[in-house]
Amino acid sequence: MKHIFRFMIAVLLLVVLSACKDDEGSLTVAFTATYGTEPLVMFDIHDYAFDQRVQFTRLEFFISNLGLIRRDGTVYKLSDLELIDLTFTDRGAAETGVELTYRGVPAGTYESVQFALGVDPVLNATVPADYSSDHPLSETGRYWHAWNSYIFSKSEGNLDTLNDGTDNPDLGFAYHTGTDDFYLPIATGFPISIPDGAGEKITFRLNYEALFGVSVGDLIDIQAKPQNHNPLDTLEINKILDNYLGALSFIIE
Q: Considering the entire predicted model, what is its pTM?
């Protein structure tokens, strides 16, 4: 009789756990890079302004405080910090981008997906030595001592300044953003539903043609100013941040 009783308890627990599980789903958040409508593959050549041509060699950025905004304004936190590295040399990988999957998300409809471009000010007050080697904030190459800040984003590549009918990039460029003043919160402002026992996906597409102001926005004149290594020189940082909202789109799949 005792064994039967224990068996009944075990079955009851399975039923309860199954019921709880049905109240949860998963969310995949993906990030991809494009140049115009094409997947952005490193070292490919694209038209730029002034009849110049451009190629990208490194694209990465941090996002912070990724979460879902409930109808009452509270936030279900998915992640404190993620490094999004879109430095892909293969078209298939560039089309897929970076995919982050979060399981055990309470099912239901949320008002919006939110995150911020950059490192949250609390974490930005730390330094690489504060972290273990497997943490993305441990990399000294992602910290700028002159700024007392992590490098929030890196957009690097080469420009072909010679309008001679050949693709021979002759000028390297690097635009890095950082410091608390340029921490940029973003919210989709569009509802998303997490189904019971199933998954949902949202893909964010960052169009670097628009981010650099070629198609819309404030143009970055790469030849005139190929780098922004002075922490007091924020002209290009401001242009990039101003262009972000026009360059970032999303689709719920």
A: 0.89
Q: Quick one: tokens of 52?
A: 């110049």
Residue 113 has pLDDT above 50, yes or no: yes
Average of per-residue pLDDT across 61-65:
98
Q: Are strands 192-194 and 108-110 parallel, antiparallel or unpaired?
A: antiparallel
What pLDDT score does 225 carry? Answer: 94
Residues 29, 35, 41, 44: what is their CA dihedral angle, to the nearest 10 degrees?
A: 180
Instruction: State the Cα–Cα distance between residues 84 and 98, nearest whole angstrom.
Output: 7
CA distance 66 to 136: 16
The DSSP letter of residue 107 is P
Residue 250 has phi, psi (to 5 degrees) of -145, 160
SS3 50: helix
Residues in contact with 253: Cβ distance below 8 Å, sequence separation at least 6, in sequence order: 200, 201, 202, 203
- Give yes or no for a contact between 177 and 151, defined as CB atoms under 8 angstroms apart: yes
Alpha-carbon torsion angle 37, 39, 44, 45, nearest 10: 10
Whether 104 has a pLDDT exceeding 50, the answer reads yes
Convert the pLDDT of each residue in 195-219 to its tens digit: 999 999 999 999 999 999 998 889 9
